[in-house]
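User: Can you predict the 3D structure for this chain?
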Amino acid sequence: MKPLLLFICLSLLAALSCPAAGETVVYFGTYTRGPSKGIYVSRLNLETGTLSQPQLAIESVNPSFLALHPDGRFLYAANEIGTFKGEPAGSVSAFAIDPKSRLLKPLNQQSSRGAGPCHLVVDKAGKNVLVANYGGGSVAVLPIRADGLLGPASAFIQHKGSSVNPQRQAGPHAHSINLDPANRFAFVADLGLDKVLVYRFDAAKGTLSPHEPAFVAVKPGSGPRHFAFSPDGARAYVLNELLSTLTAFRYDAARGVLTETETVPTLPERFTGVSTTAEVQVHPSGRFVFASNRGYDRITVFAVDAATGALKAVEHQSTHGRTPRNFGIDPSGRFLIAANQNSNSVVVFRIDPEKGHLSPAGPRTDIGSPVCVKFLVAK
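Assistant: Here is the predicted structure, written as structure tokens:
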């Protein structure tokens, strides 16, 4: 091949594989019971909101929730399965991210120590994966080696108890696990217990220990699901799946204590159908909180009063699909991508920086059973 032709070919390949300036890489976790085969990767144009055609990054079974290592080299997935190597547990998979193509290379898998792992995070030091097992009603910590591989669990805690809804709360169901900005405390929203449990977290040792107070309770029957901090760490929010409400807290970072300030509905008064909530996230500015509703199939936008922290619903935006299981806000705060699980699509919305309103930035993009959206912050 002539040198000029070779140069042109290599340049085209690089343009296709590497995110250009003004783009960000997006990963999608899915359920693989339908057309999906695993984890998909795409690129979001941060000027137009255009999403490139998703590409299969790696085949994996039910990689329903994803987490990225802070150095951008590794991705971890909760494989939402009932058994792993004969044990009544799911698994957590580790992948290396190709720096050019952004496709994934398998590293290893470890048991999540409980059935149905549904949520995970990488701690801010990049030393551990913390995973919540919905079916097992438990949480575990898996240490991360320098090469990105996962070790066996260094900590495991089994929740116990129940609450008032006999169909959904007969036992514990740990639905998410999150860390505070200081990486000192872990917060577990347990749908079955109507509690957000609080643990002291040691990143160096990979351990969890009960805090005092050990939890904060929400209204019986609420079913706390996902949890999010404001960017400054002064406030926190838990989204309650069963009652379709959002509970706001003040956070005392020194003591690791949450104090409830208010609980507001995510549905308008006129809504009379069946709906459950799924995802809650705070805008990078801290001025807005977003919550998804499945059944109502809309994202509710709340404005946060700068002085008091009070929440006010300002919009209920259709996700232009069915069952918005999850969504992601790009790190610049300009765009939100909603994952419509039951209509096999994702839709990009532009975020109004002043009012928080959402407006579609383009047509829907087809992905089989999307349930998680994660942005890669390139290093």
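The chain has a mean pLDDT of 94. Residues 25-57+268-379 form a domain with the Methylamine Dehydrogenase; Chain H fold (CATH 2.130.10.10).
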